[in-house]
Amino acid sequence: MGGIGSLRDLGERNDIIKAINRSLADRGEERAPGSFVPRGEAAQTPITGRVIDKRLTDELGDRIGLIIDGIDGRVHHVAFRDPAAVEEAKIGAIVEVSRTPSQRPADRNIAIVATGTGVYRPSAHRKMLEAAPAGVRVGDYEAFVDTHVRRLEALRRAGIVERASADCWLIPENFEVRATAYDAGTVNLTSIRLLSGYYLQQ
Predict the structure, then answer these.
(1) Which of 56, 111, 161, 169 is exposed most, by the fewest CB atoms within 10 A?
(2) Containing domain of residue 139, as a range?
């Protein structure tokens, strides 16, 4: 599972580097590969710079990547899952991208249910809610648990958890740390602010 994920990540990284090179070539520019930041969304500090390209990042077309020529002298690639978030970020615009990683309440709940066993069972979660309701109405138990299952599905695709059956998810010991790190490297917690819709020269 880890090997497949690593190969996928390597392939995606190579595609991003090629895209950065193409964007620079279209502008008649060339930069040292060491100045490329293929995973700009994982930056610890905000990225400010000019958008030099905007592209779909996968065959499903559900992520849009911005290539940003940063004021730090590096060229960043940042992916966004919501097209509306980057609608105003036209090529040439000046933007600031930042991230606000924080632990999701769902991850904490999953970890609590899996404590001592390393297994999350939706049925067990529902029983816990029924035994000690915590702000969830009786009729909403199913929907509440379903949100946790959807979160696990996303983390399964990222190689963080495994699904043994519909009612059995294998949760690693460092689950919460890995889940937070996953979010820090995805668009879900990445925000963009338009500083100027015009070219920097203008």
Answers:
(1) 56
(2) 105-183
